[in-house]
Amino acid sequence: ELVYLNGWTGTFDEATISVNDRGFNFGDGIYEVVRVYESRLFAMDDHLDRLERSAKAIDLDLPWQKQELTAITEELLAESGISEAMVYIQVSRGTAHRNHIYNEEIKPNILVTVRSVPERSPAMYQNGVKLITQPEFRWQMCHVKSISLLGNVLAKNRAHRAGAAEAVFVHPDGTVTECSASNIFIYSNGQLLTHPADNKILAGITRKHVLAAAESLNLPFAEKPFKINELMKAEEVFFTGTIVELVPVVEVDGQSVAGGKPGPVTAKLHQEFTSLRK
Ligand code: PLP
């Protein structure tokens, strides 16, 4: 494990930041989580593009070029000696006495951490997992990868308490958007569906690469909203994220979905996702 903080490198125990950091006070910041496979950053450009889009959306001027961020991350990664890693990059607006109004002059704080990828249970992929639904109670800027994650945290913990792997957000009209920390797909009537990348979801990097895998397999797909009743009847359901990749879903709010077992399309897409990144 290793930490980079504003030019300093050390351990988690030693790293400190001001209590006036706006990330700490307001959740005023953005982040990325990047997967490292065999010592190589996966889709770093996609992540840095998204970091730049998030920064722009919250009027934060990133003082670093993508190249610099890549160099900082690669150096930290090499120093850590970890080959299967999870990289966390966080940028807060900066440090100043607590005031909602920020001074345009403050300098963003940057944190990069490298840790081993947490163990993923093979049972999750072999047997599938449970979801709970949650009414969408977050904000209108879900496309920003903001460190203000209270809604996501509450939803995920409700899922955890219910013995489920994820919570999926459902709008009042039944539209399914995404999960607390992942995107969601259904396979129905020979077509793969996922919500369009608008302000209601985070445009997942895994989501993007799964759509590329569908294309490469000649599997029909559409970025089109679908409703919870369609999900309940779908042939297959899975969610996607950087660390979990693709996870088959077999139960929602205690009801069996997708025939109660992981399906062949999910497995095929996962396989293609894996081979495309090599
Ligand atoms: N949606 C939300 C709300 C997330 O927090 C995440 C990842 O943490 C995702 C989707 C999936 O994004 P990615 O595939 O880039 O990890």
TrEMBL record:
Identify which top EC class this enzyme belongs to.
Answer: transferase
Tell me the protein's name.
D-alanine aminotransferase
Q: What are the GO MF terms of this UniProt record?
A: D-alanine-2-oxoglutarate aminotransferase activity; pyridoxal phosphate binding
- InterPro entries reported in the protein's UniProt record: Aminotrans_IV (IPR001544), Aminotrans_IV_CS (IPR018300), Aminotransferase-like (IPR036038), BCAT-like_C (IPR043132), BCAT-like_N (IPR043131), Class-IV_PLP-Dep_Aminotrnsfr (IPR050571), D_amino_transT (IPR005784)
Show the GO cellular component annotation of the record: cytosol
Function, in words: Acts on the D-isomers of alanine, leucine, aspartate, glutamate, aminobutyrate, norvaline and asparagine. The enzyme transfers an amino group from a substrate D-amino acid to the pyridoxal phosphate cofactor to form pyridoxamine and an alpha-keto acid in the first half-reaction.
Subunit relationships: Homodimer.
Q: What is its EC number?
A: 2.6.1.21
Record lineage = Bacteria, Bacillati, Bacillota, Clostridia, Eubacteriales
Protein keywords:
Aminotransferase, Pyridoxal phosphate, Transferase
Query: What is the catalytic activity of this protein?
Result: D-alanine + 2-oxoglutarate = D-glutamate + pyruvate
Pfam families reported in the protein's UniProt record: Aminotran_4
Record-stated family: Belongs to the class-IV pyridoxal-phosphate-dependent aminotransferase family.
The biological process GO terms on file are:
amino acid biosynthetic process; carboxylic acid biosynthetic process; D-amino acid metabolic process
Cofactor requirements of the protein: pyridoxal 5'-phosphate
Q: Name the PANTHER family on file.
A: AMINO-ACID AMINOTRANSFERASE (PTHR42743), D-ALANINE AMINOTRANSFERASE (PTHR42743:SF10)
Protein species of origin: Desulfotruncus arcticus DSM 17038
